[in-house]
Design goal:
alpha/beta
């Protein structure tokens, strides 16, 4: 069995905890989707996090992913996005093999996005950017993609482009 550590890092409010919740639900590790606003997520377990509606602690959830040839143990590391708790982001990214950086289609690249990308790059980590909140009426995927390419260069290439009607 191989072990993969995947950190979710980036700016506060971009959807790290919601993405972690969705991944855990999709792989069957949890049986319902929680929401940070209702205090029902797996990753925000501390009463202070529930009260403030943002992550304070680095949280880890583990699940097994079975492939044709082997089973992989995945440690999903949800890091805080608030700068007051940046130490948690550094810990999570340092422990990870891969870093997922959520970026809201409403607001684009923010300071926390840049910090997470730079840290992951400096530590030689694989990076995956996920554009979140594309279902919001004020979201603009293409503006966000342009923002990402402007900030991070030619290495930004969409793998999936949403169809927006």
């Amino acid at each position: 069995m191989t072990v993969k550590n995947i950190a979710l890092a980036g700016h506060n409010g971009e959807g790290k905890t919601a993405l972690a919740e969705a991944i855990l639900f999709k792989v069957g590790a949890i049986d319902r989707l929680g929401a940070a606003t209702s205090g029902t997520t797996v990753m925000d377990f501390d009463p202070e996090e529930t009260k403030r509606v943002f992550s304070i602690n680095t949280a880890i959830a583990t699940f097994d992913l079975k492939t044709e040839n082997e089973t992989q143990r995945i440690n999903l590391i949800d890091t805080p996005g608030m700068f007051d708790f940046a130490g948690g982001m550094y810990e999570g990214v340092t422990a990870a093999n891969t870093v997922i950086i959520p970026v809201s289609a409403k607001s684009g690249v923010k300071v926390g996005t840049k910090k997470a990308f730079k840290l992951a790059t400096d530590l030689g980590k694989s990076k995956l950017i996920v554009v979140t909140k594309i279902d919001d009426p004020n979201a603009n995927f293409y503006n966000t993609l342009t923002d990402l390419k402007t900030e991070f260069g030619a290495s930004i290439c969409p793998v999936i482009v949403p169809v927006i009607k």
